[in-house]
Amino acid sequence: MKLLHFSLIVFMAGTVLPATAAGSYVSTRQEIHQAIARANRWLATQQKPEGYWDDPELPAITALALNAGLRDAGVKPAEPLPKHLDTGFTWLLAQQKENGGIFNRGLSVYNTAVSVSALTAANRSEYEPAIVKARKHLISQQWDLGKPKETDNLNDGGIGYGSKDDHTDLSNTYLAIEALALSNEVIADGKHGQQPDLDWKAALTFLSRCQNLESTNDQEWASDDAQNKGGFVYAPGQSKAGEEKREDGRTALRSYGSMSYAGLLSLVYAKVGKDDPRVEAVKEWLGANYTLTENPGMGAQGLFYYYQVMSKALTAAGVDKLKLKGGREADWREELANALLTRQREDGSWINDNGRWMESNPVLVTSYTVLALGQILDSIPQ
Predict the structure, then answer these.
(1) Please, what are the domains in the chain?
(2) What does the pLDDT look like over 258-269, one tens digit per residue?
(3) Number of alpha helices (DSSP H) and beta strands (DSSP E) in the chain
C-alpha cells in the first residue's frame, strides 16, 4: 500500500502555497506537537480493555480516537502500531458487517465513513480488504429513487445516515465523499478488481441544492441576499440555523459555518475547479463570516466539528490566507491553532460546554481537535 498523507491533501489545480511562509510557524509546530502528545496520552487512558472508546454501539468514536492516535509524532508509518492502537483497530475491524458497513446501532454511513478514514490513515496493507468492502457500502447508500431523472427527488445524489426511508444531508454526504477520496489510492492500481463509484453528476446536483446560490441551485428557497449568498445548509430545503423571511416575501434558509466548510471540501473532492462560481461564492461567504469564537450561525453548537472541517476544507482548497470582508487576510493556521491550544484542559483533553451533537463528550471533542491540529501541521508549507 502506497504511503498516504494523513488527509490526502487535494490542492486545487493551479494553487501553490508559498514555501517562504513555513519559517513563521516554528513555534506553532512545537506547541501543536506537544498538545497532540498530551491529548493522545489522555485518550489512551480512556480506551476500554476490549479496544473501543466510549460507546461500542458507535464505532465512529473509536475510529476518531484511533485516527487521532495516528497523529502522534511517535507513531511511525513503517513501524508496527503501538499496542493500544493495534488493539483498537482489531476491535474496529471486527464490527464490519457482511454488507461492508462498520456500524452497530444504525447510522451506518456515519460510522463507516469515519472508520474508512481511520483505516486509510493507518496505512496498513492488511486493512485494504475491509476498506474496499466498506467503500462499496458507502457508494450503495447514495440515493436514486428511480424517477425519470436521477435527481428528481431532493434526496437523490446525496447520502444519509444509512436508511433510504428518511433523508439525505450534507454532513453524511461530505463524510462519505471524504472517505472515498482518502481511500481512493487503495483501489486505484486495480489490484482489487473493478470497483464501483459514486454518481458524481448526481452528487454535484445534490451539493448545489445545499448552497445558497441562485445561479446554480434550482430550488426556489436559494437566496443571493448578502447574509446567506454562497453559504451551505444542512440539506436541500433544511437548515439547522433556521430560516428567515426576505423583503420580497420569499423564505430564505440561513447559511452556517460548519456546513459551508463541508460544502467547500465536498466540491474540492468532487474536482470542481477553483474558478467555479460555487467555489468562489462559498469562499466569499466564509471570508465574510470568519470567526473562531463560534460556529457561524449556530453559536457554540457543533463548534469543534466546525474547527475540524474548517482545517480540512481550507487545506484541500489550497487557501493560504483567507480573504475576509474589509480586505484583511486571515492567517487561519496560526489563528485556529491558537484558538485550539488555549482551550486544552489540564489533563490534555478538550470539551465543548454546549453539548449539542455529542460535544459534551471529551473523547469525541478531543479527537476532533487533535485531527484539526494535525491537519494544520500537514498544511504548513514545507
Answers:
(1) 19-379 (1.50.10.20)
(2) 999 999 999 999
(3) 13, 4
